[in-house]
């Protein structure tokens, strides 16, 4: 089948995407807008979509209570859900490309475990620490975990299989230490850590939105700029070197971007699993495996998945609220088993 490509070139960057990608991205953008309006509208105090649009445009809706609920409670929470989904999905896309393994995910290979350990350390041992220290500590934990995985898997080059195996082992160690800290922590701080570990955007405010935003502004464009290098690395080191790629340097940059996005997402909303696994797979079915199109597609898919997971968690068993991490786990675990079965002979 002949593929119709759209090529964008300049001195700094080179992009090649299928012509269907912009159409799919536009459709996903519409789906995200609908999902976000639904998430803001639904709840104990239902609000009409028209009132939501008026509020976003700065118009008076004649009900200050609804305006407060939209602007101070539901809208920042929804934005955080979308942004965290983007970060985790892009991170998962990068690690699947680097390891050449469709089952790779920041949670499965240990990156999220390192971020979680560092964040729980701050929550339990330094409960009065400022809010901005949480993303920094999670990034440091994720980066340290990535360095450990990368160094232990090094054998005259970095092996994708060893990266995954080392990640699984180190993830178990980090999870055990996290559990130990929770066991001996103060009850109030432990309660906060447990809620956070479940993966939730409950109570997220504009403070978390503006805390996460710089990480996306910096690292999402970096991911897009490195997409063509990820295409080369995905073909194998020998092929990438024959194409003129500086394999270890480019892999190191991509690991840094993936770690930063995963750490920022985990620090903001806790350990929400399987987004980095599901979103890239769905993205490949829509736009193929070329990362210039796959990265933005996966990002939008990850955002809409967490927004919808948050909506389902809030409304399915109301007034009881399920963390969105529980909802994604219910969906993601069977999907992971399906992928294992489908790929067992490959």
UniProtKB/TrEMBL annotation:
<dbReference type="Pfam" id="PF01032">
    <property type="entry name" value="FecCD"/>
</dbReference>
<keyword id="KW-1003">Cell membrane</keyword>
<feature type="transmembrane region" description="Helical">
    <location>
        <begin position="75"/>
        <end position="95"/>
    </location>
</feature>
<keyword id="KW-1133">Transmembrane helix</keyword>
<keyword id="KW-0812">Transmembrane</keyword>
<dbReference type="GO" id="GO:0005886">
    <property type="term" value="C:plasma membrane"/>
</dbReference>
<keyword id="KW-0813">Transport</keyword>
<keyword id="KW-0472">Membrane</keyword>
<feature type="transmembrane region" description="Helical">
    <location>
        <begin position="161"/>
        <end position="188"/>
    </location>
</feature>
<dbReference type="GO" id="GO:0033214">
    <property type="term" value="P:siderophore-iron import into cell"/>
</dbReference>
<feature type="transmembrane region" description="Helical">
    <location>
        <begin position="107"/>
        <end position="126"/>
    </location>
</feature>
<dbReference type="InterPro" id="IPR000522">
    <property type="entry name" value="ABC_transptr_permease_BtuC"/>
</dbReference>
<feature type="transmembrane region" description="Helical">
    <location>
        <begin position="253"/>
        <end position="282"/>
    </location>
</feature>
<feature type="transmembrane region" description="Helical">
    <location>
        <begin position="21"/>
        <end position="41"/>
    </location>
</feature>
<protein>
    <submittedName>
        <fullName>ABC.FEV.P, iron complex transport system permease protein</fullName>
    </submittedName>
</protein>
<feature type="transmembrane region" description="Helical">
    <location>
        <begin position="132"/>
        <end position="154"/>
    </location>
</feature>
<dbReference type="InterPro" id="IPR037294">
    <property type="entry name" value="ABC_BtuC-like"/>
</dbReference>
<dbReference type="GO" id="GO:0022857">
    <property type="term" value="F:transmembrane transporter activity"/>
</dbReference>
<feature type="transmembrane region" description="Helical">
    <location>
        <begin position="320"/>
        <end position="341"/>
    </location>
</feature>
<feature type="transmembrane region" description="Helical">
    <location>
        <begin position="208"/>
        <end position="227"/>
    </location>
</feature>
<comment type="similarity">
    <text>Belongs to the binding-protein-dependent transport system permease family. FecCD subfamily.</text>
</comment>
């Amino acid at each position: 089948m002949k593929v119709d490509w759209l090529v964008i070139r300049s001195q700094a960057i080179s992009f090649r995407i299928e012509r269907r990608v912009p159409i799919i991205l536009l459709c996903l953008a519409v789906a995200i807008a609908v999902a976000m309006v639904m998430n803001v509208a639904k709840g104990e105090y239902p609000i009409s979509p028209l009132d939501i649009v008026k509020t976003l445009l700065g118009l008076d809706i004649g009900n200050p209570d609804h305006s407060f609920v939209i602007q101070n409670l539901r809208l920042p929470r929804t934005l955080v859900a979308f942004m965290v989904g983007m970060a985790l999905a892009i991170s998962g896309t990068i690690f699947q490309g680097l390891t050449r393994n469709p089952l790779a995910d920041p949670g499965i290979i240990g990156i999220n475990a390192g971020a979680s350990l560092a964040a729980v350390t701050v929550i339990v041992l330094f409960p009065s620490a400022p809010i901005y220290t949480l993303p920094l500590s999670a990034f440091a934990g994720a980066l340290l975990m990535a360095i450990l995985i990368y160094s232990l898997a090094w054998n005259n080059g970095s092996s994708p299989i060893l990266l995954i195996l080392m990640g699984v082992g180190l993830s178990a160690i980090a999870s055990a230490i996290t559990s130990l800290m929770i066991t001996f922590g103060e009850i109030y701080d432990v309660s906060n850590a447990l809620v956070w570990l479940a993966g939730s955007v409950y109570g997220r405010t504009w403070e978390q939105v503006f805390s996460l935003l710089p990480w996306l502004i910096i690292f999402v464009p970096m991911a897009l700029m490195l997409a063509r290098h990820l295409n080369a690395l995905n073909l194998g080191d020998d092929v990438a070197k024959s194409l003129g790629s500086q394999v270890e340097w480019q892999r190191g940059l991509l690991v840094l971007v993936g770690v930063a996005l995963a750490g920022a997402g985990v620090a903001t909303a806790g350990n929400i699993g399987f987004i980095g696994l599901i979103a890239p797979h769905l993205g490949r079915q829509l736009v193929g495996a070329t990362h210039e199109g796959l990265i933005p597609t996966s990002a939008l898919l990850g955002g809409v998945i967490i927004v919808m997971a948050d909506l389902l968690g809030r409304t399915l068993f109301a007034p009881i609220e399920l963390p969105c991490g529980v909802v994604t786990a219910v969906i993601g675990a069977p999907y992971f088993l399906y992928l294992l079965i489908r790929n067992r002979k490959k």
